[in-house]
Amino acid sequence: MIHTGIGNAGHLFVIVSFVTSLLAAFAYFKASNSNEIGDQPWIKFARVTFYIHAVAIVGIVVSLFTIIYNHYFEYHYAWSHSSSTLPVYYMISSFWEGQEGSFLLWLFWHVVLGLVIIRTNKKWEAPVMTVFATVQAFLASMILGVVFGDIKLGSSPFMLMREVSSDPRYLINPDFVELDGTGLNPVLQNYWMVIHPPTLFLGFATTLVPFSYCIAGLWRRDFKDWIRPALPWAIFSALVLGVGILMGAYWAYETLNFGGYWNWDPVENAVYVPWLILIAAIHTMITFKKSATALKTSIILVISSFVLILYSTFLTRSGILGDASVHSFTDLGLSGQLLIYLFFFVAISIFICVRVWKDLPTSDKEASTYSREFWIFIGALTLVLMAFQVIVPTSFPVFNEIIELFGGISNIAPPANQVEFYSQWQLWFAIGIALLSGTGQFFFWNKMDKEKLIKAITPPIIISLLVAAIIFVIAKIYNPVYILILTAGTYSIVANSHILINLLRSKSYKLTGGSIAHIGIAMMLIGIMFSEGYSKPISLGTMTIKFELSDEDNSTNLILFLNEPKYMDRYEVVYRNELVKSSDVNGYVRKSMLDDSEDPFYKIVKQPIIKEGKVLANKGDTIYLSNPENTYYQIDFTDRFSGEEFTLYPRVQQNPSMGGGSMHSPDIRKEWNRDIYTYLSFTTLLEEDIDWGEKEEVELRVGDRFFVNDYVAEFKNLERIDKVNFIDLGPNDVAVKASIVIYGEENTEYLAEPLYIIKNNLVRRPPEVIKELASKITLESINPDKNTMTFGINTTQKDLIIIKALEKPHINVLWIGTFVMVVGFVIALRRRYIEFMRMRDKGLG
Amino acid sequence: MKKSSIIGIIVIAIALAIIISSAGDASSYVTFGEAREMAESGSTSKIHVVGELKKDVQGQVVGVNPSADRTSVSFVMVDDNGKEQTVFLDDPMPTDLLRSEKVVVVGAYKDDMFVADKVLLKCPSKYEETAL
Question: Which of A59, A149, A563, A654 is the Cys-Cys partner for A13 at CB 3.0 to 4.6 Å?
Fold first, then answer.
């Protein structure tokens, strides 16, 4: 059955939301031109249309979620992003896996923010909401899915399969419905992917608020007052965006295997850049009261941060990154619309700025070198340069495109080693930022001059030099650049702590935000320096066979044969088992104990599963695997000195959404002073990848003992079976199953059950592969005259995996620093919000 | 000189340095032929080559040789101009190498062998398979 109703309703909501956003924009525009405040007619009308718009957006969200939740696979969105076995919390992720859903998320946040602004503002409501509603119109047009002649406007999430698919099944029967969806990409089936996208999009959405205030201020020629309400929002935006970025980084650290949390991928850079600009904007906005120059800079920075968000949207969604990035969205043909969106706001901003620029208050007096304005300005400049350094190479694909547009040929590729390339610049800027954030704080206090400054910063300099010296002697840091980073970071922590202590003494708790946030940033810097700068492979394979071309004598890959201990760093490591996970048996279970059933999510138990003396599943039981694409490799670690033991389970995920490609995810051992990051760099996951040796044949009777790859095996019995997976047996067909028990290492018993099937007079011999024993057993023939069976035995190289293990020292300093930074932001946010509320209630806001 | 002019000059200098360094460190997409010429003219910079694995008439991938201990691999790649080249990678064979439809290698020539630092694989997408 085709549920057309819900899709039509959804599409109607989309159209309503688009129309109402245009109406609201127009009405608010009228209201601001006539300086309306409160309950005047245009405002009233505008509010009503915006409320309808809000209802429509919620309506779209509800419709789309209903489609996903009820598995209406006649809809393309549900089919391509969800499946019937997906748990509810991942259905939420599948909601925003696609471009349309993520636009919807963005629209939703704007609606929430718009409603907050309507409630909290008086005189700013009309002009600010004009900008808001205009942005909503652009975003809603992205999911409009309306065709005018040759022009398709937006891509609707409510398309039916039969409207988008060229599959002949839909031509034969328009009511055909797929039984199941293709599911949420398994890489994204991770708790971070439930909360990271909404956080990031809230970050994107909040950059609109300071931008709208800024445009409103310039448009209404209220050049200064817009900063007060915009500042708390800018801080909130920087907080949310920063947290969103770090969540993404942590997801990458846990899931991908490039060996870290930040890869300078264009998608990461595209949000890092606006964040830096936003931080710069916050700083200049804080100083604006005293310096007229800061006003112009603030205007430029606030506008840039929003425009850069639009630019990043364009980069990641237009398909322009192509080969340059691993994780951008697929092209939905929205490039043109995205470009118009970007250019519209660039043009409007430039137009409005140019119109009023000469009327903006300026001062001819230069800021003194001993003023906080000066140093904050330098800090903001550093942040801008930092952003500039990242945006230039990230835009290479755009340059190529532009040059080709004018008939040229351009083939610039990203730097071959992007991590090194970006880091070598960013670390110097970071040193600058640390020094400035330490020193700058002293100027917040009182009028400074040379003597006072020297007096104030001498103690923190001495303390931080001492502390840094102690750290680099203990941690054995000899790289001069790292020593500089460490010293600068320590200085920032010491200087800001000094300020913080003074503030706490004078009980000015609400002013502590800045110094706490700076301490957090400096801790992050030190954490990054240690965990990236001193990240080192500990999986050193000694004496490997090499082509003469390899540069290094020692490989950073360690080969682990099954059950054969090897030494690595402080540990003895053993590869024990190839496992899958099932909640039916409380976690991991050996893969060779299970047989496939016809449903990939259900496996048949071959041998009783016993854990801690309890039988969790018997032979013949069926257990459910929520993620059958995941295989885990049990690696036992024993500390050779302390005897402490632990186990890591790195994962290999066979990802159907990535063309059957596989993703090797690490497992991370967290210690107080380091992480041990271990992942598989090689495994023979698929049988087709195994090279089997020559087949050996043995003739056996039931009860006979024999050798399989040097392990003792026993032919237990032979039985006729009436059901075989994946094969339909007819009345004249026959299937028999031989059971062979093989006694492996560590008292482990393995069961091999090769089959012999006669179907339509054709013989099939599905073999049994026991990977752990590197053996394949085939039931070759049944010899009724001699009452024996002939088995074929193939063997191969012993089961092995190759691992890479990295040590990430002091990575916890980075994560703790993140929390400290967040706390600082929250305190600062509270202070600026209270300031805004006070002024508003006096009728000035 | 005014302080703001000095700052202006410094900022412009840094910005120029950034642009020059970006241009200098930028890699490029080239063919094996061009990469060879670059290497022979003494350039050691790393470049990107796009192509696919060599296949026989039956469409089977040929020329992939993992080292005996499997910690490195060499394979034959055909670039967009149809030129064949043996590529060496000092890492275990990427699991999906044989299933990839497009390969991007990042590296440089060393004598007759192209030594890759990084191999990027593009696997057939599920959407193409299900005919959309």
Answer: A59
Q: Does A642 touch chain B (CB under 8 A)?
A: no
Put simply, the answer to whether A413 touches B45 (Cβ < 8 Å) is no
Could you tell me the residue ranges of all domains in chain A? 1-189, 202-414, 444-536+810-845, 563-688, 692-796
CA A468, A470, A474, A477 torsion-angle sign: positive
**From the CA of A231, how many Å to the nearest CA of chain B?**
26
Burial class (CB in 10 A: 0-12, 13-18, 19+), B40: exposed
Question: Is A415 close to B115, i.e. CB distance below 8 A?
Answer: no
Q: Across chain A, how many H-helices and E-strands are there?
A: 20, 30
Q: Mind giving me the DSSP string for A79-106?
A: HHH--TT--HHHHHHHHTTSHHHHHHHH
**Does a structural domain hold residue B21?**
no
Using the Cβ of A429 and the Cβ atoms of chain B, whether some distance falls under 8 Å is answered with no
Instruction: With beta carbons less than 8 A apart as the criterion, state whether A845 and A835 touch.
Output: no
In a domain, B23, yes or no: no
Whichever domain contains B106, its CATH number is 2.40.50.140
Provide the token pair at B50.
């796009």
State the sign of the Cα–Cα–Cα–Cα dihedral A296, A299, A305, A309.
negative
pLDDT score recorded for residue A106: 96
Please indicate whether, in this complex, the C-beta atoms of A388 and B18 are within 8 angstroms of each other.
yes
Q: How far apart are CA A337 and CA A107, in angstroms?
A: 16
Q: Closest to B15 (Cβ–Cβ): which among A388, A411, A685? A: A388
The pLDDT tens digits for A782-840 are 898 888 999 999 998 888 898 999 999 999 999 999 999 999 999 999 999 998 888 88
Rounded to the nearest angstrom, the minimum Cα separation between B8 and chain A is 10
A549 pLDDT more than 60: no
Q: A383 and A280 in contact (C-beta within 8 Å)?
A: yes
pLDDT, position B73: 87
Number of domains into which chain B is organized:
1
Cα–Cα distances in angstroms (integers) from residue A45 to residues A35, A285, A600, A804, in the given order: 15, 33, 56, 63
The token pair that represents A635 in the structure block: 């690696």
A114 pLDDT higher than 50:
yes
What does chain B come to in residues? 132
User: B51 and chain A: CB distance < 8 Å anywhere?
Assistant: no
Q: Residue B124 domain-assigned?
A: yes
- In angstroms, what separates the C-alpha of B28 from chain A's closest C-alpha? 4
Note whether B27 contacts A659, CB cutoff 8 Å: no
Amino acid at A841: D
Q: Model confidence over A128-183: pLDDT tens digits? A: 999 999 999 999 999 998 888 778 889 999 999 888 887 888 888 888 888 888 88
ipTM of the complex: 0.84
Spell out the residues 6+ positions from residue A761 whose beta carbon is closer than 8 angstroms to its own: none
Amino acid at A355: R
Which pair of structure tokens corresponds to residue A699?
Answer: 């003739």
Percent of chain A beyond pLDDT 70?
A: 94
Cβ pair B71:A659 closer than 8 A: no
Given the DSSP bridges, would you call strands B47-53 and B27-30 parallel, antiparallel or unpaired? parallel
Amino acid letter for position A196? H
Q: Does B78 touch chain A (CB under 8 A)?
A: no
Partner-chain contact A366 B4, CB within 8 Å:
yes
Residue where the block lists tokens 């993404």: A248
Strand B84-89 and strand B113-122: the pairing is parallel
In-domain check, residue B14: no
Is the CB of residue A78 less than 8 Å from the CB of residue A71?
Answer: yes
Cβ-Cβ contacts under 8 Å, B25 against chain A = 393, 415, 421
Question: CB B68 to CB A545 under 8 A?
Answer: yes
CB of B8 within 8 Å of any CB in chain A?
no
Q: Do B95 and A552 touch (CB under 8 A)?
A: no
Residue B69 has its nearest CB partner, among A323, A545, A658, at A545
